[in-house]
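The authors assume throughout that readers already know how a fold can be written as discrete tokens. For illustration, here is how one protein appears when written out as sequence plus structure tokens.
>
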Amino acid sequence: MTDAERTLDAAAGRLAELGPIEAALILGSGLGALADQVEEARALPYAELPGFPVSTAPGHAGRFVVGRLHGRRVALMQGRLHLYEGWSAAQIALPVRLLRRMGARTLVITNAAGALNPDLKPGAPMLIADHLNFTGSNPLTGPNDERIGPRFPDMSRAYDPELRALARAAAAEAGEPLAEGVYAGVAGPSLETSAERRFLRMAGGDAVGMSTVVEAIAANHCGMRVAAISAITNAADGGPDQQPDTIEEVLANAAVAGEKIGRILARLIPALP
């Protein structure tokens, strides 16, 4: 048994004490307040799981929260892991695989992202239709465990079309405009140069961020259906009027978009298959 398998088994044993789940959510920068809405909540910090990676990013509490949200039994990752923290793609995949082992068949991912597309404005949500992996990493690199998933998983429908349709319907019901676009994932932690932003836009990206793609690959690999929504936090088109970005601005706009995403999720979660 590998170290990763031992860590996964130990963590699964601890989380099993919190009860079964139907769906899972990953909460990105500035979006952790959704965990406060969980009823009958039980929390378990990542640090209490032996060998488990611990989140160090600003605004990430670093714990699992299990309970009832909008009528469904869910597990939330209140804070995620990033490549820029020094974790490997395989380590970032670990909590996704853990959530699947707990019984989750659906994964809803949220993140904070910069707007490559000038039509996207800070404080708005964007439904992810597809992604571009510019991180240079893949969680499936190395030996494959067929008990988790196939060697060559299909990623042509990485963000489930049915779930995206449900998200659009939920946004309409909530009265929240919801753009849809392609998410470009980069490793970070430095924000992109203006030239990189223009390149990512030419490559087909609408928003750019430092998370999500590794988690989405891992989730598809282990048979989970994925939906993802970005909180647009800053203008990042790399044009002549590009302004410097600050983490304070990012977190402030993430909170604004997070309230909108919360209203969408209030309609989406009860409708999940």
About this structure: The domain at 3-271 is CATH 3.40.50.1580 (Rossmann fold). The longest strand covers residues 225-235. The chain has a mean pLDDT of 92. The chain has one domain: 3-271.
